[in-house]
Sequence to fold (119 residues):
Amino acid sequence: QVHLVESGGGLVQPGGSLRLSCAASGGSFSIVNMGWYRQAPGPQRDVVAIITNEGVTNYADSAKGRFTISRGNTKNTIYLQMNSLKPEDTADYYCNAWITIGTTTSNYWGQGTRVTVSS
Fold:
């Protein structure tokens, strides 16, 4: 069973920075793409940034110019460097991945890590 484990959330002042990490583990698999979503209080979970297995990145408009998604050397780990944080960035951030095991591709979610931007 594949697991996604996030870390790096916390409390930061406006204008500050945080770096989130997400590691995928569990058996033999290949990653199609990985990304970050966030969910402020309420039911909607919005995409923040995605990186494909080829390294192509896409960002939500709210993240462009401030956030950077990247991969580790093993490609099973991704990071989200968040700079110039604003109070409206406050949310639970979730790692997401499309992963292929054998001939089946499935979607996986991490447990989430909370980011609070406040003075």
About this structure: The mean pLDDT is 95. The radius of gyration is 14 Å.
